Amino acid sequence: MEHHRFGCRRRPRCPAGNPRRAPRPTTVTGVLDLCDIFGPMTILLIRHASAGDRYRWWGDDADRPLDERGVAEAAALVELLDDRPVTAVLSSSAARCQQTVAPIARRNGIEVEVHDALGEGGADRATLLVRRLAGADAEATTVLCSHADVIPEVLRDLIMGGMHVSGGRGCAKASVWELTVDEGEVVHGHYRQRPVQPVWPAH
Question: What local confidence, expressed as pLDDT, does residue 177 receive?
Answer without folding.
Answer: 96
